[in-house]
Specification:
mainly alpha, 292 residues, 14 helices
C-alpha cells in the first residue's frame, strides 16, 4: 500500500522540527495568522505564539506545495492534511522508541538515573524511589523520573559536574542521532549502507535543536513530552546562545562529514565583519539609551 507523501513528510517534521505539537491546531492557527492583514497585530503576539508560527512556517517550507494546497482546501480537507502529517510524526516516534530499555536492568537504571543522584548510594536511591512522584502502580518498574530531571546518560562519559552543568551535556555516545537521521551503519567507522538516510532524503544538512531534543527523548522512558520540551527550552534560550552554537557545531561535525562552520564566520577586516561590528555598536547604544 502506497504511503501518502504527507505521512512521509510528517515523520521528518516530528523528528527535526517538533515532536509533540498538535498539527491540526498548528495549521489552523497558522492559517489565521496568514490571513491577518493587520501588521500591528504581529507586535502584540506572545513569544509562544511567535514560536508556534515559526514552526508553522517551517512545515510549509519542508512540504512542497503545502501552502498552496492549504489555501485552496476546505475545512475538512485541512483537517485531513493535518491528520496525515500527525500520523507520520506519531508513527516515527513510535518506531524510533521501540526496543528502549527500562530501569529493570541495573546498568540501564544507572544511566537513566537523574544527574546529581548517586546510583551507587543505595540509601540515597531508596529515599529517591520512596517519593510519590517516582512510584508507578501499573508496572514493575518503580521509577517514573520527572521530565525535567535529566538522566546522566545525556553527558559525555556519563559524568555530570554540578559546578559546570553544560560540560559534556548532550555529548553522550548513547544519543542515537546517526541511527535515526542517517543510516544505522553510519555509526560505524566506515559506513556500508546502500540506502539513503532520513537526513539525506529530506535535504537535511545540519543538526537542528529539535532533532537533538528528539533523539535524547528516545532514551527517556517516562514523561517524554516534558523532557523533550525542557531540553528544547534550554536550547532556545537566548542567554545560552554561545553554548548552544558550540554544541550544534560539535554535532554537525560528528554527523555531517562535509560540514564546516568556518565559512559562516566573516573574514577579519572584511566588509561583512565591519557591518556586523557596526550593528553591534548600534544595538549597544540603543540599550544604553545613547542617541547619535
Amino acid at each position: 500500500m502506497t504511503q501518502d507523501p504527507l505521512v512521509h513528510h510528517g515523520r521528518h517534521f516530528g523528528r527535526a522540527v517538533h515532536a509533540f505539537c498538535n498539527v491540526q491546531t498548528l495549521i489552523v492557527n497558522g492559517l489565521m495568522v496568514m490571513g491577518d492583514d493587520d501588521d500591528e497585530a504581529v507586535h502584540f503576539r506572545s513569544a509562544i505564539e511567535h514560536k508556534e508560527y515559526a514552526v508553522f512556517r517551517e512545515i510549509l517550507r519542508m512540504v512542497p506545495g503545502l501552502e498552496a494546497r492549504l489555501m485552496g482546501s476546505s475545512e475538512g480537507e485541512v483537517t485531513n492534511i493535518a491528520d496525515l502529517i500527525q500520523r507520520g510524526a506519531n508513527g516515527a516516534r513510535a518506531d524510533d522508541t521501540k526496543g528502549m530499555k527500562s530501569f529493570n536492568h541495573e546498568h540501564t537504571g544507572a544511566l537513566l538515573c537523574p544527574a546529581g543522584l548517586d546510583w551507587a548510594n543505595t540509601e540515597y536511591v531508596s529515599d529517591f524511589l520512596a517519593t510519590p512522584i517516582h512510584q508507578n502502580e501499573t508496572c514493575q518498574c518503580p521509577i517514573q523520573v520527572a521530565g525535567n530531571q535529566w538522566p546522566v546518560f545525556l553527558y559525555a562519559n556519563y559524568m555530570y559536574d554540578p559546578e559546570d552543568p553544560w560540560n559534556g551535556l548532550l555529548h553522550s555516545g548513547l544519543l542515537a542521532f546517526k541511527h535515526i537521521f542517517t543510516s544505522p551503519s553510519s555509526v560505524e567507522q566506515e559506513p556500508k549502507a546502500t540506502r539513503s538516510g532520513n537526513a539525506r532524503i529530506h535535504g537535511m544538512r545540519s543538526v537542528t535543536k529539535a532533532s537533538l531534543a528528539y533523539v535524547a527523548t528516545q532514551d527517556h522512558v517516562t514523561d517524554s513530552e516534558r523532557f523533550y520540551n525542557s531540553i528544547l527550552e534550554l536550547l532556545d534560550d537566548i542567554d545560552e546562545k554561545d553554548e548552544v552554537e558550540q554544541l550544534l557545531t560539535w554535532w554537525n561535525c560528528q554527523v555531517f562529514p562535509l560540514y564546516s562552520d568556518i565559512e559562516r564566520l566573516p573574514s577579519q577586516n572584511s566588509a561583512f565583519a565591519r557591518i556586523r561590528q557596526k550593528c553591534a555598536e548600534y544595538k549597544e547604544r540603543d540599550v544604553n539609551g545613547i542617541r547619535c
